[in-house]
């Protein structure tokens, strides 16, 4: 087991380094929820709701490319950027070590 | 007016199985769903995906599970109102409820069961000031009646398939169609993207890429939108209608206004019988929450069974419930 470290910027601008083990087959969305970030994740990780929308400010090039479902969903969003991703489609592994994610998805009502 | 014992909001797997459990106790059900077909997420979103955690089925396709559930509840002859969103809930003097849908269908029932899953899918709105002020007055999130747009100046916003398709369609109807997309390219259906590019080259539509709508203006009705390009310089164009097409996002919808206790977009229930804070209203499946909640179809099935034991007292207040196994009693149709 290796601890993967990366930075997360919350909606209020606060930044925190997270350490998540790589042997629990977690997605970034699941890791953020488990770390008490306010993420809806309505669809449970099927790239259907975009409520786990994040911007990858550092480390984007190392993260595996998007699948068709994720591309299609991001294409429909009004506030997507060139470095937007869905956290549910990013796995916690060595490829995100040192990355910087900014949370964009809508909060709970 | 439709009269039934239990009105079930949501015709997904859990709502369907609730009909079975209710039927065993001789309670009749009517289901309402905002989607035009039965099956909820399973039919709408992933009909061909295999599900591996339904007891007794090592693997089953989502649509097959819906079809099987429909077959299972056939003896109980439930009613369906599809393509209509539940809007209003009114308590009557005799403690029954009247549920009213978006199309004004009314259902009178003794208990209400919310099995709404993710909620209903509503248009995703861009963050533009005064957007809601102009809803129905120039801002529309879907094209219900294309004739409304005949000879008008239309601005569409979005980069997905529906933005492309409606741009193509409305280019023959409207006086002028402008499509505003924040990206540089369209990754949707290549055929549609190509057609839109051709329409733009021939001057039939106005295609504005790498831009966003930042403001809207009007006096009682929309007449202008402000667009900002990559350099953030803003300019205005005339618009009778703005159609933002940014996909759909699941929301609790009007149920959120029913005075139910809601936590993180889910309805709080008592795990004794999955009742809500309002007597006679239950919530089962993905839409509810309680300590230890797992959003699994099989948990929803369990919740449906326990809920029915409790709802019985509203449907048959003078009767005592005796629990019977289907292996002993069979399934008696009505």
Summed up, what is this model?
By secondary structure, chain A is an alpha+beta fold.
Keywords, please?
heterodimer, A: 109 residues, alpha+beta, Ubiquitin-like (UB roll), 5-stranded mixed β-sheet, 2 helices, 5 strands, globular, B: 334 residues, alpha/beta, FAD/NAD(P)-binding domain, 2 domains, 5-stranded parallel β-sheet, 4-stranded mixed β-sheet, 7 helices, 22% helix, elongated
From the spread of the alpha carbons, the general shape of chain A counts as globular
What is the 3D form of chain B? elongated
CATH-level-2 architecture of chain A: Roll
Q: Give helix and strand order of chain A, one letter per element, not per position.
A: EEHEHEE
What radius of gyration of chain A results from the CA coordinates? 13 Å
- Considering residues with a beta carbon less than 8 A from a beta carbon on another chain, report the largest interface and each chain's count: A-B, 21 and 32 residues
Q: Can you tell me the CATH topology of chain A? A: Ubiquitin-like (UB roll)
Largest sheet of chain B: 5 strands, parallel
Average pLDDT of chain A, to the nearest integer? 91
Overall domain count of chain B: 2
Mean pLDDT score of chain B, rounded? 94
Oligomerization category of the chains in this entry? heterodimer
Report the C-alpha radius of gyration of chain B, rounded: 24 Å
Number of domains of chain A: 1
- The DSSP helix count of chain A reads 2
The biggest sheet of chain A, with number of strands, parallel, antiparallel or mixed sense and barrel status, is:
5 strands, mixed
Task: Give the structural class of chain B.
Answer: alpha/beta
H/E element sequence of chain B: EEHEHEEHEEEEEEEHEHEEEEEEEEEEHH
CATH superfamily of the largest domain in chain B: FAD/NAD(P)-binding domain
**Portion in strands of chain B:** 25-35%
């Amino acid at each position: 087991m290796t601890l993967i470290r990366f930075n997360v910027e919350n909606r209020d601008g606060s930044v925190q380094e997270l350490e998540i083990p790589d042997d629990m087959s977690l997605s970034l969305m699941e890791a953020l929820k488990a770390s008490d970030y306010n993420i809806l994740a309505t669809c449970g990780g099927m790239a259907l709701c975009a409520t786990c929308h994040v911007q990858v400010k550092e480390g984007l090039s190392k993260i595996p490319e998007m699948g068709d479902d994720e591309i299609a969903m991001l294409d429909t969003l009004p506030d997507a950027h060139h470095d937007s991703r869905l956290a549910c489609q990013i796995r916690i592994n060595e490829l995100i070590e040192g990355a910087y994610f900014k949370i964009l998805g809508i909060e709970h009502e | 007016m439709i009269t039934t014992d239990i009105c079930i909001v949501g015709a997904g797997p859990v709502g369907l199985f609730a009909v079975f459990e209710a039927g065993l106790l001789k309670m009749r059900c009517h289901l309402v769903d905002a989607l035009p077909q039965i099956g909820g997420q399973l039919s709408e979103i992933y009909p061909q995906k295999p599900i591996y955690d339904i007891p007794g089925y090592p693997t089953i396709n989502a649509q097959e599970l819906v079809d099987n559930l429909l077959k299972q509840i056939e003896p109980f002859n439930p009613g369906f109102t599809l393509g209509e969103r539940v809007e209003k809930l009114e308590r009557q003097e005799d403690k029954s409820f009247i549920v009213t849908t978006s199309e004004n269908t009314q259902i009178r029932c003794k208990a209400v069961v919310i099995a709404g899953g993710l909620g209903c899918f509503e248009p995703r709105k861009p963050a533009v000031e005064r957007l809601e002020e102009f809803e129905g007055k120039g801002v529309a999130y879907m094209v219900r009646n294309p004739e409304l747009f005949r000879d008008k100046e239309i601005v569409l916003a979005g980069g997905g398939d529906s933005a492309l398709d409606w741009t193509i369609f409305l280019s023959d109807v409207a006086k002028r169609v402008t499509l505003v997309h924040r990206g540089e390219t369209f990754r949707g259906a290549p055929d549609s993207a190509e057609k839109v590019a051709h329409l733009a080259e021939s001057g039939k539509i106005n295609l504005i890429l790498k831009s966003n709508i930042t403001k809207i203006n009007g006096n009682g009705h929309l007449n202008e939108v402000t667009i900002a390009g990559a350099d953030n310089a803003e300019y205005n164009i005339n618009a009778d209608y703005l159609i933002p097409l940014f996909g759909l996002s699941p929301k609790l919808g009007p149920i959120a206004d029913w005075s139910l206790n809601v936590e993180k977009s889910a309805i709080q229930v008592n795990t004794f019988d999955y009742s809500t804070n309002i007597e006679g209203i239950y919530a089962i499946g993905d839409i509810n929450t309680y300590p230890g909640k797992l959003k699994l179809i099989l948990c929803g099935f369990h919740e449906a069974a326990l809920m029915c034991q409790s709802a019985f007292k509203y449907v048959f207040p003078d009767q005592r419930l005796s629990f019977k196994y289907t292996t002993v009693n069979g399934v008696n149709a009505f």
